[in-house]
Amino acid sequence: MSMFEFHTSYAGNLPQKTWLLDEKSKFLRFWDWLAIMLLVFTAIVTPYEVAFLEPKGVALFFINRVVEALFAFDVLLTFFIAVQVGPSPPRATVICPCCPSLA
């Protein structure tokens, strides 16, 4: 299943061509683990960097910018995740913060 395919329960509620992501896709499971690893990296490296390192390191500066960019992408990605609420088919409701008219 690609990250833009949906379970059959979504079929009646979403247009055929959409940018919404399935909450159970492999891509989002991978992305959640990546976000956890980035949080652990930030929780360990940032205090050490602030307390003990001189602000001369160019490599760590760019690594921090990449981590920040991934966090920003994570915030944007959140707006495109379709969530199934309520009973399973035949009538399922989809809540999408960016497209309330679809619900």
TrEMBL record:
Transmembrane segments: 30-48, 60-83
Gene Ontology process terms (BP): regulation of membrane potential
CC terms in the record's Gene Ontology section: plasma membrane
Keyword terms: Membrane, Transmembrane, Transmembrane helix
Entries under InterPro entries matching the protein: KCNH_animal-type
Molecular function GO terms recorded: voltage-gated potassium channel activity
Residues making up the signal peptide according to the UniProt record: none
Keyword Membrane: yes
PANTHER family: POTASSIUM VOLTAGE-GATED CHANNEL PROTEIN EAG, VOLTAGE AND LIGAND GATED POTASSIUM CHANNEL
Protein name: Ion transport domain-containing protein
Source organism per UniProt: Cymbomonas tetramitiformis
Lineage, broadest ranks: Eukaryota, Viridiplantae, Chlorophyta, Pyramimonadophyceae, Pyramimonadales
